[in-house]
Amino acid sequence: MGSLNLNQAELEEKTRLINQVLELQHTLEDLSSRVDAVKEENLKLKSENQVLGQYIENLMSASSVFQTTDTKSKRK
């Protein structure tokens, strides 16, 4: 009778461990999916940042406020 209880306890422990492993696998899959989504968003934001940077650069070069001027020639 004692070995039957031991086998039952071992079976319950194995079942618990298997369930825990499956839960951890699902968690890992979820985290992996989240990492992929964040990577994709990061690439999108980098691209948008490049476009905005170029836009600002173009605005600055087109504006006389940001043009470099020779201040010595204006002072007399």
Automatic annotation (TrEMBL):
<dbReference type="GO" id="GO:0000139">
    <property type="term" value="C:Golgi membrane"/>
</dbReference>
<comment type="function">
    <text>Positive regulator of amino acid starvation-induced autophagy.</text>
</comment>
<keyword id="KW-0175">Coiled coil</keyword>
<keyword id="KW-0472">Membrane</keyword>
<protein>
    <submittedName>
        <fullName>Short coiled-coil protein</fullName>
    </submittedName>
</protein>
<dbReference type="GO" id="GO:0005802">
    <property type="term" value="C:trans-Golgi network"/>
</dbReference>
<keyword id="KW-0963">Cytoplasm</keyword>
<keyword id="KW-0333">Golgi apparatus</keyword>
<comment type="similarity">
    <text>Belongs to the SCOC family.</text>
</comment>
<dbReference type="GO" id="GO:0005829">
    <property type="term" value="C:cytosol"/>
</dbReference>
<dbReference type="Pfam" id="PF10224">
    <property type="entry name" value="DUF2205"/>
</dbReference>
<feature type="coiled-coil region">
    <location>
        <begin position="14"/>
        <end position="48"/>
    </location>
</feature>
<dbReference type="InterPro" id="IPR019357">
    <property type="entry name" value="SCOC"/>
</dbReference>
